[in-house]
Design goal:
Number of helices of chain B: 4
Largest sheet of chain A: none
Chains: A mainly alpha (about 90), B mainly alpha (about 100), C mainly alpha (about 170)
Radius of gyration of chain A: 17 Å
Largest interface: A-B, 45 and 51 residues
Structural class of chain A: mainly alpha
Oligomer: heterotrimer
Helix content of chain A: over 70%
Chain lengths: ~90, ~100, ~170
């Protein structure tokens, strides 16, 4: 029963991601476009986990873990490496 | 349909609902800060529900602990990203406030 | 009873050792989560290497372990983040978007270091609040709130953190 629903759920999440991509197109600021990358990472993780269960491919779970780890690096790269004073204070 | 299946399906469907709400908020909310609210909170809850649904479905402690780890790292990534993007937007808002207000 | 967390005295051997031990334990648990008990010795080696590198480069203040309090805090946090998700989902899906966003400034009443970092990170998942930036050498947090009333989340989280770390809040 659950196995029948899994592909539908994965498809729904992918469509959801596609709708979110409208925000990349519209902007207006760079930060708005960055939000879509955030959406991309969280949604992809869920899709990968569901596919791992459905296709019985446990390796996909490790891919999901890698994706979620990359997500924070992407936003770090977006704002630039920490170099400013108050950031250094904040991270200590 | 077993009770376990029922729990799994309702958790997964609820998770989908929150992913949808996050996307709707991303498209509907007026500025980048409000959109961040929608994205971090709703999608994090969506991921939590999807992970718990799959955990209930598999029942294997290895998979459950991996799902827990993925959720925890996702949580960390979401909060760190939200803070970084919000700070970036806040810094750059002062440079071009008119542009941002006009194009909303 | 307030236990003062150990101060990060530069080069203090004991702080380094306790930091190492905590990092080692966390890394070992992650290894078991990822790999099970197979290759356990390689895991122990990897965890000690990771903890050693961490201790060398990024040693911070350590806090005593209080697993029961942590569990209670995790329960609090999960409930609050569910409330946060439900709250923002309801606002997004409603017929009209019911928000009245404001920037608010919150003066942080808990010690710098881990408590402040956790406050800054977790506040983004509580109902209606988003951490924007730290100011005044980490004593002031700019928060974006969906409604002016959402600021209550910050105080709630701060109180929970103060309770978990056994520290006094500056203004009670």
């Amino acid at each position: 029963m659950v196995d029948l629903a899994l592909p539908g759920i994965a498809l729904f999440l992918l469509l959801n991601l596609l709708a979110g991509m409208l925000r990349v197109y519209r902007g207006p600021t760079l930060a708005d476009r960055m939000l879509a990358a955030l959406l991309f990472s969280t949604t992809t993780v869920a899709v990968l986990l569901i596919l791992a269960e459905w296709m019985e491919q446990p390796a996909l779970r490790n891919v999901a873990l890698l994706f979620v780890m990359l997500a924070s690096i992407i936003s770090l790269a977006f704002v630039g490496l920490p170099g400013r004073e108050d950031l250094e204070d904040g991270e200590q | 349909m077993t009770p376990t299946d029922l729990i799994t399906l309702s958790l997964l469907l609820a998770g989908c609902g929150f992913y949808l709400a996050g996307t709707v908020g991303l498209l509907r909310f007026p500025d980048v800060f409000c959109r961040l609210h929608a994205l971090t909170k709703a999608d994090n809850l969506g991921l939590f529900l999807v992970c718990s649904g799959l955990a209930v479905h598999s029942g294997d402690w290895r998979i459950v602990s991996l799902l827990l780890l993925i959720w925890l790292v996702g949580l960390l990534a979401a909060t760190v990203s939200a803070h970084l993007i919000a700070r970036h937007a806040h810094e750059h808002e002062a440079d071009a406030p008119e542009e941002e207000n006009e194009l909303r | 009873m307030t236990t003062e967390p150990t101060k990060p005295a530069a080069g203090s051997f004991r702080t380094g050792l306790s930091w190492f031990a905590q990092a080692f334990l966390v890394l070992t648990l992650i290894w078991i989560a990822l790999n099970g008990l197979s290759g356990f010795w390689a895991g122990l080696a990897a965890a000690s290497a990771g903890a050693a590198v961490g201790t060398y480069f990024a040693r911070g203040q350590t806090y005593p372990w209080r697993p029961l309090k942590w569990l209670a805090f995790i329960a609090f946090f999960i409930i609050e983040s569910i409330r946060g998700g439900v709250d923002v989902a309801a606002r997004a899906m409603g017929p009209t978007v019911r928000i009245d966003p404001v920037f608010e400034s919150h003066s942080i009443a808990i010690p710098p270091g881990l408590p402040t970092i956790l406050l800054t990170s977790f506040i983004s998942l509580l109902p209606g609040t988003l951490s924007v930036r730290l100011r005044e050498h980490d004593h002031e947090l700019i928060v974006h709130a969906l409604t002016p009333g959402s600021m209550a989340s910050v105080t709630r989280l701060e109180r929970a953190l103060a309770w978990m770390f056994n520290v006094e809040r500056a203004d009670g």
